[in-house]
Amino acid sequence: MTPSRPRSKERALERRHPAEVLNATVVELALDCIVSIDHEGRVIEFNPAAERTFGYKRADVLGKLMAELIIPPHLRQQHYAGMRRYLETGEARVLGKRLTLEAMRADGTTFPVELAIVRVPLPGDAVFISYVRDLTAQHQHQGELQAQADKLKETAMELASLNRTLLEKSQEALRARDEAFQANKAKSAFLAAMSHELRTPLNAIMGYIDLLALEVHGPVTDEQRERLERVKRSANHLLDLINDVLSFARIEAGRLEFDIGPVAVDDVLRSTEELLGPQIAAKKLRYTTTNDCPGTRVPADREKLLQILINLLSNAIKHTREGGEIVLACARRDGTIAFSVRDNGPGIPAEKLEEIFQPFTQVEDPFGATRQGAGLGLSISRELARAMKGDVTVQSQVGVGSTFTVTLPATA
Asked: What is the pTM assigned to this prediction?
């Protein structure tokens, strides 16, 4: 029986010098291509890595011109000229250097390689060993890295452009904010000045009405007295509007002062009822006060808290039909004192619940109540409450009624 080729190869190696075995093993197992040529440029060694890389079998290339096998046509003349020059003159331009150039596979395709050529130090004709490393994967990776770098550069340029645009927009927004602030400041100053100028002659008018009613300038008939009362009611209404505008202007300008101190809840509830009692009676409303925290004091500005409750109760009176019900209640709730004003009026649509706190906003009354005021009461009430570390909120259902709640901290 004929022994297998691998076994024959092993026996052949066993008969060789250990150094030869070592060198043969290195060539056989090397990961890079090793191609040896003689002085004529013919292949005398072609290791397995070279077979895999170039697509030739070792047996097919031995004795053939290396240049015709693995060097692209446009580089062959340069290769031949270099070998001839070295053999004739000893001038070596590429020996011992690492070069990057193109190589060619058996199918004619070219690819990048790294090449190092050395002359074997043996007597006689020259023998050269070429170490060739395929750079295809490395170049591919470098190409991918370059593409990523280009993409990152492009992204960085886009981000820089966006950043410039954002900076410009931010500067525009800051300018617009400053302009709006100045315009708002001027508006508030104008409203405050106008309100003051209007109140002075209006107070004089009301004073003259009182003098006429007291018959200081002569007798007044019943009909004239009734007309004087009508004029006075209109003047009072106008004064309320002016006071609202003045309060709103002061709030926006940040010039409203607060005198925070312990305010007796019982006193506030009683004062509110006394002030609005005539209006409640005029509409024949059922009015109830419930106080679940008697004797309690809340940190607040008494006049501002009273103003808030009067605003809320006045709205409830205005929008509740004759014979309706209003409840003013006070209770402790999660570390706060909550004052609530509940009515069984027309209610407010859900989409309007936040809008009603905007300045100069009023909601249509389905019962046909005439619009009164400037639409500032709720806006002022909420701002006053928030200035005292509280808030004003609302819950409402159309056709059922509304509940406005003022919450203030239970302790300072």
From this structure: 0.48
CA distance 188 to 186: 5
Distance, in Å, from the CA atom of 147 to the CA atom of 250, rounded to the nearest integer, reads 62
* Residue 128 backbone dihedrals phi, psi, to 5 degrees: -120, 145
**Assign residue 2 a region: left if phi > 0, alpha if psi is -120 to 50, beta otherwise?**
beta
Q: Provide the 8-state DSSP code for 64.
A: S
Give residues with Cβ within 8 angstroms of 191, minimum separation 6: 245, 246, 248, 249
Distance CA 213, CA 52 (A): 121
pLDDT digits 0-9 by tens, 343-373: 998 999 988 888 888 877 666 655 555 545 5
**pLDDT tens readout for residues 256-272:** 788 899 999 999 999 99
Residues 336 and 409: their CA atoms lie apart, in Å, by 4
Identify the DSSP state of 82: H
Distance between CA atoms of residues 33 and 53, nearest Å = 7
The C-alpha atoms of residue 343 and residue 313 are separated, in whole angstroms, by: 9
Give every strand in the sheet of 110-119, ordered side by side: 43-46, 33-37, 128-134, 110-119, 98-104
Distance between CA atoms of residues 410 and 338, nearest Å: 9
Q: What stretch of H or E contains 44? A: strand 43-46
Q: Taking CA 38 as the corner, what is the angle to CA 34 and CA 42, rounded to the nearest 5 degrees?
A: 80
Whole-number Å distance between alpha carbons of 172 and 369:
45
Nearest-angstrom CA–CA distance, 301 and 293: 19
Strand partners, 331: 338
Q: By the 8 A CB rule, do 310 and 269 touch?
A: no
The 8-class DSSP code of residue 410 comes to: S
